[in-house]
Amino acid sequence: MTTNLIPDSIKETQETLWQQLRNPRLSFRSLSCGNNSLLLAYLPYLIDMVTLQQVLLPFLERLPDEKITPDALVGSLPVARVRKTTDYRQVTDYLVRGWIYLQIEGVDSGLLLFVANIPSRSLGEAQVEVQIFGPQVSFTEALETNLGILQSYLPTDMLSNVSITIGRRSRTNVEVCYMEELADPENVQTVVQRVRELDVDGLIDSGKLVQLIDDNTFSIFPQLIMTERPDYVSEALLEGKVIVFVEGSPFAIMGPSTFVDFFKSNEDLYIRWQMASFIRLLRFLALFVSLFFTAIYVAALTFHYEMIPSALLVSLVKSRSKVPFPPLFEALLLEMIIEFLREAGARLPFKVGQTMGIVGGIVIGQAAVAAGFTSNILIMIVALSALASFTFPSYMMSTAVRILRFPIILLAGIWGGFGIMLGASFLLIHILRQSSLGRPFFLPFFPFRLRDFKNSLIRVPFYNLGKRPALTRSPDNARLPDEAGKKRPIQ
């Protein structure tokens, strides 16, 4: 629209910028350099004032007396990036991102100078995805820093990205990254199209974006992985996956992903394959324990006493002799107490929360047994189920399993073993119907892909992982030469 065009009068430009931004901290500086009158506009708390005072202003004051043009300044300004603009909307968008706007009197265009110093935290260790081996650095809230970290892990010209701005009011920058020769163009197009078609008021974090672009927003299971680890993202790019960064968020979005991917940790690649396979199998066992252990206890005590060995039955009866509640109510009560303790420990300061979780669990458990509210055996079972859910690398998947435990316990209390099988069948059917960026969510089980079992429930040696996952449909399927595994005979 013509109303967004920049006039050739710097006074009119200053008045228009003031009216559009309405920011009392917006600063203007006028300079006279021979026959040239210059206007600088910027937000002081977003720019590097040292660069402005000691580099940019002295350079502008030394400009020649003859008339100059923006085109003549583009190649000589002492800043990292310079962009020419004729649009007010672009000027305001860049000012709030730490750029300086420079205009010359009599010229109906200006220059945007990158002198940003956006407040952000320095690089540190990952706080959510803790691992013993491998790189310890994590992403930050600064988008440029995250892209720089990723490029340092993959110093190749194959790393490409698509820049998108979304949010009618937040104007948030989003970067879609992929490896040109490895990523399936259909996957890239799917992500780019879903992000570009978003019409939202604002976007602050990748946790909101991942819910807007996943395949089924009504499913409790996450379909795209969020991670703060650059090494995890780098490995995903080498597999042919697509990565999404959101300005202001330290978490990257990875896809397409499978159900099995949520139980993998990038640390599995840094330890011996036998150890990695054992740990992965342990996580899947923990999934079963977390989902069904308490429900099996409720079903056995309510409907299936004959399934309990006689020696164990005596202990169960003695433990429950003073408990006035049915097993279903008893189990739900303890599960809710565990959830209260877990959520309170997560919201309190670290040291206080850790102490409260340990002390609170012991005190409440002992008091509940002494008061006859529950039995010792159920406390052990519920604690084991809660402990099993902590083994999952993905916090989102762990939370989903925590929630699903409650309806399965209810079904066990109503219909016993039949209720458990009904709940498990419903979950399996639901997972089979899910997809991630249009790809099957339950690979390699359905559709069955024998090749991908080498890095799913277990991890075989690297020399036997010569092909990329079928999920990504990478144009370059070979990760290692076909002869690589043959060169390493088993001793």
UniProtKB/TrEMBL annotation:
<dbReference type="InterPro" id="IPR004995">
    <property type="entry name" value="Spore_Ger"/>
</dbReference>
<keyword id="KW-1133">Transmembrane helix</keyword>
<feature type="transmembrane region" description="Helical">
    <location>
        <begin position="281"/>
        <end position="303"/>
    </location>
</feature>
<dbReference type="GO" id="GO:0016020">
    <property type="term" value="C:membrane"/>
</dbReference>
<feature type="transmembrane region" description="Helical">
    <location>
        <begin position="377"/>
        <end position="396"/>
    </location>
</feature>
<feature type="transmembrane region" description="Helical">
    <location>
        <begin position="353"/>
        <end position="371"/>
    </location>
</feature>
<dbReference type="Pfam" id="PF03323">
    <property type="entry name" value="GerA"/>
</dbReference>
<protein>
    <submittedName>
        <fullName>Spore germination protein</fullName>
    </submittedName>
</protein>
<dbReference type="InterPro" id="IPR050768">
    <property type="entry name" value="UPF0353/GerABKA_families"/>
</dbReference>
<keyword id="KW-0812">Transmembrane</keyword>
<keyword id="KW-0472">Membrane</keyword>
<dbReference type="GO" id="GO:0009847">
    <property type="term" value="P:spore germination"/>
</dbReference>
<comment type="similarity">
    <text>Belongs to the GerABKA family.</text>
</comment>
<feature type="transmembrane region" description="Helical">
    <location>
        <begin position="408"/>
        <end position="432"/>
    </location>
</feature>
